[in-house]
Amino acid sequence: MKLLILLFLSLCLCFADAAYALRCGHELVDLGDYKADVIDKCGEPESIETHIERRGGSDFASRSRYYGNGKYPRASGNYGQQQYVEIEVVVEEWVYDFGRRKFQQYLRFENGRLKEIKRLDRGG
Questions:
Q1: What's the predicted TM-score (pTM) here?
Q2: Of 121, 119, 116, nearest to 30 (Cα)?
């Protein structure tokens, strides 16, 4: 039974689309890295697409009521009321093609920080 579970988990890992790191030569790119760091480690991507996403909710407003460490609430006339706040997020989607024998890699940046790494089809 344990062997069957181990085999199942191994297969799940083999076919998982999302990754948490990308190896470029001897360098490792991790989630949270800046765009400049990724270019230093992997070079220029094959393609870059950029767009802006608008996100909003009362969660953004509640976080903005506190100073840096979250301990001191700002004075405001509407304390305790929820506000809807909308922010713009600059999204860049990069694709690296490392050749026919390797999988292409999709990298998603939000406001200059790496948020997602995903394996695509084999390169060309």
A1: 0.66
A2: 116
